[in-house]
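Lab channel / #folding
Pinned by the channel admin:
"Please post every new chain as: sequence first, then the structure tokens as a reply. Keep commentary short and put observations after the output so the thread stays searchable."

First post following the new format, from NK:
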Amino acid sequence: MTAKKHHYIPKCYLRQWVGVDGRLHAFSRPHVRVEERRLHPSQTGYVENLYAVATMPEGQRDVLEKEFFSRVDQDADDVLKIFLSGGQIDSARHQNGWSRFLMSLLQRHPARVETIREQAATTFAEAISEIGDQYAALRKPTDPATLAEFLKATTADSIARFSGMLLQNFSDLPGVGEHLNRMFRTVVHVHNPRWKFLTSDRPLLISGGLAAPNASVVLPISPNHVFLATNSKLSSQGLIERIGGGELIPVINDRVVRQAWKWVYASDLNQVRFIEKRFPMRAD
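Reply from TO:
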């Protein structure tokens, strides 16, 4: 299978942290020490063929990337430009697109993709076990003669296709999307902060559970901007004041770094020690 980069952290998102050379500071911990490199967004936050369905014909293997995540990323790019220019999103396309982008950040990550594939395999196995002795009565004339032959011929392809369907569905849940659309949304622009916002390959922060009155959704969208959504205008106002005054920037950065999988990103080198102290040691 041809190797293709599937970015689980979109390039359009990471571009907000690049310098004049088009690169950002990318921190990783391949072993014990945290290492820093200057990378273009295209060089990080990806896994080759992450969303590919290997059992499909060559031209169709990237259908999830080409037809779903490319649209998710394009909508996110459009909304980021509006947010960072000081605008608000009013159209249904932009509102739904941004909510879909937020949901996708929780689902398209490599560790989560692997979990979804395991869930697909378990669900498929349970469904097959329920068929059991009924296979002979259920089989079509074109199906293999025995259940064992059927499984040998279809299991890998069925699980791959099913996991792809689950990944897309989980990234576009109508109920969650509608709730995100109803939340009080704002972008806080912090002018000349002592510490700038960091980001990572797990940048979305959700506190309290979406349905909780005090729930909050936080996503750094540039070194000086953070997206904020809450269920209460009062909660939103309090957080806006604390973020705008710089009080919560270290708190947000702390969570962003601690939940990173392989990468943390910065626009400068002013928080190297901060990152080193918090970068997780992961076996995965």
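NK: The CA atoms of residues 54 and 61 lie 6 Å apart.
TO: also worth noting, The two ends are 24 Å apart (CA to CA).
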